[in-house]
Write a structure and sequence with these properties.
By secondary structure, the protein is an all-alpha fold. It has 20 helices and two strands. The longest helix has 16 residues.
Length: 335
């Protein structure tokens, strides 16, 4: 479930645009410190600067369709893309979380996928997230957005920037259009559970059958197959895929399985790893909060607290600060 707190009465789009335009000039921002400007009655007056709180109160409390309308209206009214206006006014992690939030979901996924193709194998999990946690239609829209923005296909970039077993798995993952219905074939599930067990036992992790099953079957069918796997062979498939915890391809296979059958648990772990004693992975934190706020963040929050014994909002407040912290907390429902 979503954690986004959209007001019960949302102001007209034109009003939101006007308020954002004012926020960029600091209008409406009040100060109460030694450097405040006051009039003769000691009343606070406006001072030049960006009103970050106003930006958060609008963009952090609108859903994707509402932000899309705001962006369109802002461009028509002020002759400038809202993204460019935000880019000029904001900076650092706060800028990134706001910009990624404003992007339409398909455009956002295209951007995230493109960023992932530029990095090393650890970023391959971002491609898995997009390929396996989105619906077939959402994945298709992301690929169309990728084509429009980068003038090439997602598939060709993934193929170009990966090699070996990684390419063998990732290219069909981003190319597929899975059946999205609930129907399952139990006999097929039993036979393919046996195939998976045989190949995993033989350490043939990247064989054609394993790749075919994970990249083409519907999520319902894969779930049935993996349940059959556990019933027949005693272990979750991901436990059997931990033969070598340091093997990056096995880690990617486990991420694929988890994203297909239990994405909330996958994203909970990403958040947990993003905020640890070794430091904060702001990019992972931003990506998960923004992309899941309107989807399943409520469940992710519950899983996080159960696993870490700390509420997610407390963990975020400990590891982040300032306007970046405020925007993240707003997106996960802390208003």
């Amino acid at each position: 479930m979503s954690t986004l707190c959209v007001p019960s009465q949302v102001p007209p789009v034109a009003e939101d645009c006007e308020q954002l335009h004012k926020a960029f000039s600091g209008k409406g921002k009040k100060f109460r410190n030694a450097f405040d400007f006051t009039d003769s009655d000691n009343r606070l007056i406006d001072r030049w600067g960006t009103n970050e709180d106003l930006i958060i109160s609008i963009l952090g409390r609108r859903n994707a369709s509402q932000r899309k309308l705001i962006r369109h209206c802002y461009a028509e009214t002020y002759g400038e893309d809202l993204l460019k206006a935000l880019d000029k006014e904001l900076s650092s992690d706060f800028e990134r979380v706001v910009l990624v939030s404003v992007l339409d979901p398909p455009e956002r996924d295209a951007y995230l996928a493109n960023e992932a193709t530029k990095k090393w194998t650890a970023s391959n999990q971002v491609l898995v997230e997009i390929a396996c946690t989105r619906s077939p239609k959402q994945l298709n829209l992301a690929k169309e957005a990728y084509h429009a923005r980068f003038k090439k296909s997602l598939e060709e970039d993934v193929a170009y920037h990966t090699t070996g077993d990684f390419r063998k798995l990732l290219v069909p993952l981003v190319s597929t259009y899975r059946y999205s219905g609930d129907e399952v074939d139990l006999r097929l599930a039993k036979s393919e559970a046996k195939i998976l067990h045989q190949k995993i036992a033989a350490k043939e992790y990247s064989c054609d059958d394993v790749i075919r099953i994970l990249t083409t079957r519907s999520k319902a069918q894969i779930n049935a197959t993996l349940n059959q796997y556990k019933n027949d062979f005693g272990n979750d498939v991901n436990k059997d895929l931990k033969a070598d915890p340091k093997d990056e391809f096995l880690a990617l296979l486990r991420a694929t399985v988890k994203c297909l059958v239990f994405p909330e648990k996958y994203f909970e772990k990403v958040l947990r790893l993003a905020m640890n004693k070794l430091g904060t992975d702001e990019w992972a934190l931003t990506r998960v909060v923004v992309t899941r706020a309107e989807v399943d963040m409520k469940t992710i929050k519950e899983l996080y607290e159960k696993r870490s014994s700390v509420p997610l909002d407390k963990a975020i407040a400990k590891d982040t600060h300032g306007d970046y912290e405020k925007m993240l907390l707003t997106l996960i429902g802390v208003v």
